[in-house]
Give the backbone structure.
Amino acid sequence: MFTEIINVENKAVGFLKEYIIITVGLMIFTLGWTLFIIPAEITGGGVAGIAAVVFYATKIPISITYFAINIILVLLAIRILGASFGIKTIISMGLVTLFFALFQKINTEPIIHDMFLSAVLGGILSGIGLGIVFTRGASTGGTDIIAMIVNKYRNISPGRVILYCDVLIIASSYFVFQSVEKLVYGYVTMWVVSYTIDAFLNGATKSAQMFIFSTKHEEIADSVLKENKRGVTVIDGTGWYTKDKVKIVMTVVRKKQTSAIFRKIKEIDPDAFISMGSVMGVYGKGFDKIKL
């Protein structure tokens, strides 16, 4: 009974921590828009971009347009997809709507008067915010839902659909401002957001897969296991030129650990043959959890 209570408490703490992190990410995302992108009258991608274009043209608050469009998309998703996008996305959309309503009232004037800096800084903040949200298995909905609906009926990747949507959304701002300059800065923002998300998701957690060929495979495997606290698999192999039997040490480690491993291998066997490649994602004990 006592163990069950502890388990329930741990789950509650984990649940609360998860949503606090998502909330912080969404707040950073919204600040990127309200502090830099919107005051500079730049258009980004996604439903926030559509809401921004409507705001520039009609002065209707972004929160209202953002909420209205997402309600329509959620209803479509429930009808077509069966709400498979998850509760986290619905909560995220509600929080973004709330933050837009609050922050847009607080700030209406540009903090800086350089459009390029506004595009870059706004894109960086938005990308960091979205990166935090994505690490918790959530999203802000919007064009993600459109991509899932299109993907159900057409063999088009969601990433390509989102890209097409963002390009069209930013292009629509030309009809409001008649300015090629602001159009270009919109695409700069889109690129910065995309780059920042990738850098955030792959930076600190970037991993490397190493294949080590050495006659001293036992010493090398022990050093990786004991000194770097990483799992090791020893594979049987055959050198096809010599037909000699060899042992291959295979391990997946954090990129920041590779320098120490290389130094240790050089101490143990300077003649070792090593192949190393970057890994897009590693899931399991000691690495990332699978999030759906």
